[in-house]
Write a structure and sequence with these properties.
Shape: globular
CATH class of the largest domain: Alpha Beta
Largest sheet: 4 strands, antiparallel
Number of strands: 10
Number of helices: 7
CATH topology of the largest domain: N-terminal domain of MutM-like DNA repair proteins
Order of helices and strands: HEHEEEEEEEHHHHHEE
CATH architecture of the largest domain: Alpha-Beta Barrel
Strand content: 15-25%
Strand order of the largest sheet: 1-6-7-5
Radius of gyration: 19 Å
DNA sequence: CTATGGACCTGAATGC
DNA sequence: TGCATTCAGGTCCATA
């Protein structure tokens, strides 16, 4: 579930509370996507200095390195002062003097990886090819339009790729394309400046709005304090196949692209 | 180098 | 009720 808004909402929900905390213990469940990259005992005794986000990764700055956390498809974090035994789908926990940060991830597509710096070891590999942050000034409409000209694939695939812009997953790609009036199947290199500019704005607006709304809770996402998101209630197309477009009442259509569902309004998104 | 498809894993919903 | 199939918020990797 977690796309940029959910990851950012999660970050905001525990960053202030955990910053400065001393790691006292580390608990591990079943294996995640990648091994931790160090002995769990290496983390004990380190302090959490800050929590950053890069794309869909959370980066916990520690005294001696950085801990990358990715939520995969079904992951969520919880930061609480309560002590509870690890459940069947709890696969990682940092016990600190301020509370425990626990990763719950049934499908285990998520990951927790330790590296000494952002650009060394596994972190370098995972973060190295990421595109620009969509909510930063680095995301420039002119540059975006030029970059799209180099891609012959469907625009939806380009957005999901994450090597141009990060953070846009299946929900927000569909929503941004709807707002921009562009079909998910449109070839990226056929999108001109004007429409690229619209898409650029749509991406920023949708993501910012979703962060405001606490993200989307489709199944069981919640922030680290257990709060659900509300953006799914105002989604225009995602998950709405067959329902009326909120603007023109045309039934929302769906199709398959790269083994993922795309949703769009055939009338509002003409090409 | 670019584009596509499979792989990873579990649970919920659907269909016969 | 039971069992098989399909689908789900991501993204790495092998293959054309």
């Amino acid at each position: 579930m977690p796309e940029l808004p959910e990851v950012e909402v999660t970050r905001q929900s525990f960053a202030p509370a955990i910053s400065g905390a001393l790691i006292q213990d580390v608990k591990v469940g079943k294996p995640l996507r990648w091994p931790l990259g160090c002995a769990a005992s290496v983390l004990v005794g380190q302090r959490v200095l800050a929590v950053r986000r890069r794309g869909k990764y959370l980066l916990l700055d520690l005294d001696g390195g950085v801990l990358l956390i990715h939520l995969g498809m079904s992951g969520s974090l919880r930061f609480t002062e309560q002590v509870a035994p690890m459940g069947a789908h709890d696969h990682f926990e940092l016990v600190t003097n301020r509370g425990s940060l626990r990763l719950h991830d049934p499908r285990r597509f998520g990951a927790v990886v330790f590296s000494h710096t952002d650009d060394s070891g596994m972190a370098a590999k995972l973060l190295g090819k990421l595109g620009v942050e969509p909510l930063s000034d680095q995301f420039d409409p002119v540059r975006f339009a030029l970059d799209l000209k180099k891609r012959r694939t469907a625009i939806k695939q380009v957005l999901l790729g994450g090597d141009l812009v990060v953070g846009v997953g299946n929900i927000y790609a569909c929503e941004a394309l709807y707002r921009a009036g562009i079909r998910p199947t449109a070839r990226a290199d056929r999108i001109g400046r004007l429409r690229a500019g619209r898409l650029h704005l749509a991406i920023r607006e949708v993501l910012a709005r979703a962060v405001q709304q606490g993200g989307s809770t489709l199944r069981d996402f919640s922030s680290a304090n257990g709060e659900s998101g509300h953006f799914q209630l105002e989604a225009a197309v995602y998950g709405r196949a067959g329902q009326a477009c909120r603007v023109c009442a045309t039934p929302i259509a769906s199709l398959r692209q790269g083994q993922r569902s795309s949703f769009f309004c055939p009338k509002c998104q003409r090409n």
